[in-house]
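quick one, 251 residues, struct below
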Amino acid sequence: MARRISLSGAHEEEVRADFEKAIAQFRADFEKMVSERRISDINLSYSKFRLTDEKAVLVFSERAWLQMFHLIDSTDNEIAWHGNFIKEIPGRYYCSNIVVYPQTVTGATVEMDEAEYAKWLIEHDGDNDYRNLYLQGHSHVNMGVLPSATDLRHQYEIMQMLPDDGFYAFVIVNKARQIYAVIYDLQDNIMYEPEDIEIRTFRNMGVLDVVDSAKVLVKEPAPVKRDDETDERIAEYIRLNNSKRRKGGRK
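---
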């Protein structure tokens, strides 16, 4: 489920009331255990205040979608990118295109080249394709898409730099087209986890529509079904032809 990032504002009273209920239930369970002279473990665990049923939609333009998968298909190394990423309305986010930044990669790692990255940002200052780079993506090639400890540390470092009304998405993709995505929205005080996010494509170029229609309209010929009688007739035809060729060859 989605989680609250911080405890503040309207959520505080809700948390206090819910926490008091949890304490009361724990006290009742403890008193019952004592009265029944049972020895058992009672664990006080409380995390409900962090959960919410809210969902998010992450929309990729057709351009961004094709860029992303063409990029990971083009190399057997990991590779990273930024996405031009905006919040359209609360809970709905849009990535219009992706851009690759200076980095050093291997088959299992990707590291930003910080000196070159700073130059890269200056060079592209004012370029519309390089605005709103609030999505960080990278590939896991042929591995699963769950984040590594390094990935989680990188997410934490980026989150420390966000303003109080900021938002940011992290995406991991592999060649099998599996996608991991999380979205942090500090303005709405919510973190959307992978199961909370519906990923869509906005088909504004027609390329993906052509691919989908081809899946329906293009087919391979069905295998020819033959019964035993047909197979016997074919075998007899072959025997007769072979016999004629042998007789014709005798002079």
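The chain has a mean pLDDT of 84.
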